[in-house]
């Protein structure tokens, strides 16, 4: 076998690996745009009736704010949430204060909430939620998980209550950006919306479960209480997904219930955040694989799909790597480069289609020049991934 044959085999293998991730996002991008599920006139009538209904009772909600060193944002978030247009005795807010200042804790203690101040040897969001469930008394119908920087509208619980009344036990709300102060924050917000399209909206459209995202989540309280102690990594949202899908609990995406989330706005925070996500993705894949044969035998399509998701190459890395390889291969062997340019075009189309129309502006896509630097930092993160590491990597907020 000649050296050129070996190079060609390696080149085709790389193309297939990147192409598999590209094909996945292209499929769901097209689903989000083109898929129209046929329904009968009766189904249309009934769906219209359901959309017009409001829940005839008020569920009781426990609202958890795990907060690690979140002194800059937590008080404002709690104040916003306290202004809900919802019966005051039907929801309760709890802040799990971890490594926050005495001044912040003093301000929180004056609010009508439960303030928990655990001392963990190793902090994590999972431990904070476990501590809350163990120490907060009372019986609730649902639990809502929010990040310390999340802000919601006054109608949040009322809207969520209507969705819960339809029988869903796991709901992911529409997390979206609340800041766009620089190129990095804008790109982070666009990435979030692409995720919403591909992994949530499109999945639900063909009957698959939505992906979770770490905050803006709502679960049946009793299910959550019985399962939260099974969490053990920094990727608690991926663990929750795996538990739900193994138990065949459907995850509903609620696109009309926004949860405003602060996007990272400097390169160091971006790199730290992506390292946490990439580590969680590797850990999640390794945890999912042992149960994959059973999922295949029992036809658990949601679980199979979730396992495939964890094996995907991150989109920003995918588009940059495809472009770089397309240029290099075209220079070396032009005829080989054609399939790389086709893959690059299909990935670009997928991301464009998955981006909400309101964000498809020249000003937004002009910020794409910041992407190569961010991808380089993500590539450096690969060397730092430790599949056995369960330490909590905190992303700080800019002042």
Shape: elongated
Structural class comes to alpha/beta
| Radius of gyration using CA atoms only | 22 Å
- SSE string, helices as H and strands as E: HHEHEHEHEEHEHEHHEHHHHHHH
The proportion of strand residues reads 5-15%
Whole-Å distance between the termini? 59 Å
Helix content: 40-55%
Extract low-pLDDT stretches. Answer: 38-53
| Strands in their spatial order, largest beta sheet | 3-2-1-4-7-6-8-5
Please give the largest β-sheet: 8 strands, mixed
Annotation, overall tally of beta strands: 8
* Helical stretch tally: 16
pLDDT averaged over residues: 84
Descriptive account of the structure:
The chain is 54% helix and 12% strand. With 399 residues, it is α/β, with parallel strands linked by helices. It has an 8-stranded mixed beta sheet with strand order 3-2-1-4-7-6-8-5, with helices on both faces. Helix 3 (74-82) links the parallel strand 1 and strand 2. The radius of gyration is 22 Å and the shape is elongated.
Quick structural gist:
Helix content is 54%, strand content 12%.
Q: What distinguishing features does this structure have?
A:
elongated, alpha/beta, 399 residues, eight-stranded mixed sheet, 8 strands
């Amino acid at each position: 076998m000649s050296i050129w044959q070996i190079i060609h085999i390696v080149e085709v293998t790389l193309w297939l690996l990147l192409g598999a991730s590209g094909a996945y996002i292209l499929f769901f991008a097209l689903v989000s745009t083109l898929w129209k599920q046929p329904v009968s006139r009766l189904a249309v009538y009934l769906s219209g009736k359901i959309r017009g209904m409001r829940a005839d009772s008020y569920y009781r909600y426990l609202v958890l704010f795990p907060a690690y060193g979140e002194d800059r944002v937590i008080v404002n978030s709690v104040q916003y949430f306290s202004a809900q247009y919802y019966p005051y005795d039907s929801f309760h807010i709890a802040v799990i204060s971890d490594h926050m200042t005495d001044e912040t804790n003093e301000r929180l203690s004056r609010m009508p909430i439960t303030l928990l101040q655990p001392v963990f040897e190793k902090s994590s969001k999972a431990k904070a939620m476990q501590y809350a469930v163990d120490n907060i008394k009372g019986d609730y119908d649902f639990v809502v998980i929010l990040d310390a920087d999340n802000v919601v509208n006054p109608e949040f619980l009322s809207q969520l209550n209507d969705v819960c009344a339809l029988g869903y036990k796991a709901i992911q709300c529409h997390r979206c950006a609340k800041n766009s102060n620089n190129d990095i924050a804008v790109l982070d917000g666009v990435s979030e919306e692409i995720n919403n399209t591909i992994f949530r909206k499109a999945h639900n459209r063909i009957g698959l479960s939505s992906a979770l995202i770490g905050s803006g989540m709502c679960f049946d309280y009793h299910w959550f209480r019985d399962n939260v102690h099974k969490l053990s990594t920094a990727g608690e949202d991926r663990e929750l997904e795996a538990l739900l899908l193994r138990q065949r609990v459907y995850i509903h995406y609620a696109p009309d219930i926004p949860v405003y989330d602060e996007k990272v706005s400097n390169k160091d925070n971006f790199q730290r955040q992506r390292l946490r996500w990439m580590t969680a993705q590797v850990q999640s894949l390794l945890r999912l694989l042992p149960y994959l044969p059973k999922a295949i035998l029992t036809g658990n399509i949601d679980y199979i799909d979730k396992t495939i998701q964890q094996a995907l190459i991150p989109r920003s890395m995918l588009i940059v790597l495809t472009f770089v390889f397309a240029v290099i291969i075209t220079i070396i062997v032009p005829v080989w480069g054609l399939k790389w340019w086709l893959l690059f075009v299909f990935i670009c189309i997928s991301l464009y289609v998955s981006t909400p129309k309101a964000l498809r502006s020249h000003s937004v896509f002009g910020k794409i020049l910041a992407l190569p630097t961010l991808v380089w930092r993500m590539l450096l993160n690969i060397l730092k991934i430790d599949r056995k590491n369960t330490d909590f990597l905190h992303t700080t907020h800019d002042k």
